[in-house]
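R.M. (postdoc): so does anyone remember the format we settled on? I'll just put the structure tokens first.
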């Protein structure tokens, strides 16, 4: 009888342990997630991958920039910065690579595959020669349209006298484009709005331009206040409007509820560029939104980083944490989560996963709490969270120097590609060809 009771107690205890563990999110994290491969590309100067997109043929395309004209860069003569595009097939073979630019500096920021199978690239340009036909000031948005094989079909510059920086591009439901970035309103003298006059705007503002399928402007609007307002991502809403996310330290003009220094600033506009609502989220320290996606329930998930631990931020594990917020279509906060360790941890990219949940890419300096390993200064950091923002797995890739990821994509077969840059030549980084190399990480 005693043995039977002991056996029953052991079985019951095992069940309870299993049940408790299955409901403890920390045990759902896979500590065995490892990169399938880590590769660097570049030359003897500075090279970086800024964005990656999965392609309809099962492969992927990367946009960044290169200063090099040797090693892996084969079509460039000078050492100014140019856009650098690389196209890989589903087996990770490089199919083609191209550089685009002029005699001065061009840096690519975002890439999409367009519905005709080609690509649209956005960033900024200082040039008015080579591939760039005009420049209105020191720095302009530069939008470049490529065909399926990477040949340029058209290009457009947008800007005024100041430093105007293109950051994000999407193709809209009508086959046109919405491009967003920073307008130097002070240098433009208030120009940049299609239909409203500037009032108490200064410095840099969110600048959104709606274009037709050939890059012609349909309307142009800027939003912000008297300080620094930087948009980092945009999505189209079901009613053909747009939600733009970024950061702002303004507390005037279009910003009504700044919580302290930089906040996540979220702006919803109509299909014609009129403001519908705007919201600030964060605490009294620096909070910067980097990316937004739609959720399956009609709401929005926004990722970035926070140094706060008050107001909307319920906790902070260290110097800076990755911060996730879910908001409703009306801009109301549904929930928020911080992920990180005791040092600086940030997210720079967010995509929806095929198997529910979301994938994020950024960088980490921590090796505790939510981050298992750090191999040097900043490591590239990849994560997956479930639909409630709970951490499912995370992994870091890097060496003893600085390693970042800026973009992430999930391919047709469910594998993950992240891109960024690296200055390391040890740890996970087998080779460094110059100062900074373009970094590619794959997880199957």
């Amino acid at each position: 009888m005693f043995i039977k009771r002991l056996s029953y107690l052991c079985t019951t205890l095992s069940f309870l342990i299993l049940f408790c563990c299955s409901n403890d999110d920390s045990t759902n994290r896979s500590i065995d997630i490892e990169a399938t491969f880590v590769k660097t590309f570049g030359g003897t100067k500075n090279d970086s991958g800024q964005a990656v997109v999965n392609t309809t043929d099962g492969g992927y395309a990367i946009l960044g920039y290169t200063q090099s004209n040797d090693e892996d860069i084969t079509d460039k003569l000078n050492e100014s910065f140019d856009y650098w595009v690389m196209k890989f097939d589903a087996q990770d073979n490089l199919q083609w690579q191209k550089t685009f630019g002029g005699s001065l500096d061009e840096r690519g920021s975002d890439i999409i595959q367009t519905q005709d199978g080609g690509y649209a690239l956005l960033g900024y340009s200082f040039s008015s020669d080579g591939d760039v036909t005009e420049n209105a000031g020191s720095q302009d948005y530069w939008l470049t349209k490529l065909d399926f094989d990477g040949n340029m079909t058209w290009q457009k510059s947008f800007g005024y006298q100041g430093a105007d920086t293109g950051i994000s591009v999407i193709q809209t439901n009508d086959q046109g484009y919405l491009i967003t970035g920073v307008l130097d309103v002070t240098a433009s003298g208030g120009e940049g709005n299609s239909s409203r006059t500037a009032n108490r705007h200064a410095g840099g503002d969110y600048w959104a331009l709606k274009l037709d399928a050939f890059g012609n402007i349909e309307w142009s609007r800027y939003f912000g206040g008297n300080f620094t307002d930087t948009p980092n991502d945009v999505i189209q809403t079901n009613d053909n409007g747009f939600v733009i996310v970024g950061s702002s330290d303004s507390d005037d003009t279009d910003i009504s509820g700044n919580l302290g220094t930089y906040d996540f600033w979220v702006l919803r506009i109509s299909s014609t560029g009129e403001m519908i609502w705007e919201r600030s989220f964060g605490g009294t320290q620096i909070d910067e939104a980097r990316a937004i996606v739609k959720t399956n329930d009609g709401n929005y998930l926004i990722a970035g980083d926070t140094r706060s631990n008050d107001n909307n931020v319920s906790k902070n594990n260290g110097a800076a944490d990755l911060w996730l917020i879910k908001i409703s279509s009306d801009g109301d906060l549904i929930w928020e989560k911080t992920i990180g360790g005791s040092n600086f941890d940030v997210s720079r990219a967010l995509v929806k996963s095929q198997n529910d949940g979301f994938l994020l890419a950024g960088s980490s300096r921590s090796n505790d709490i939510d981050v298992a390993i750090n191999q040097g200064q900043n490591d590239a950091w990849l994560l997956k969270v479930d639909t409630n923002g709970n951490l499912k797995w995370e992994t870091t890739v890097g060496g003893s120097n600085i390693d970042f990821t800026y973009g992430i994509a999930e391919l047709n077969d469910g594998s993950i590609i992240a891109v960024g840059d690296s200055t390391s030549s040890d740890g996970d980084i087998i080779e460094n060809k110059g100062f900074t190399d373009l970094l590619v990480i794959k997880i199957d």
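R.M.: ...and that's the designed sequence above, right after the tokens. Also worth knowing: The radius of gyration is 23 Å. The first helix runs from residue 2 to 22.
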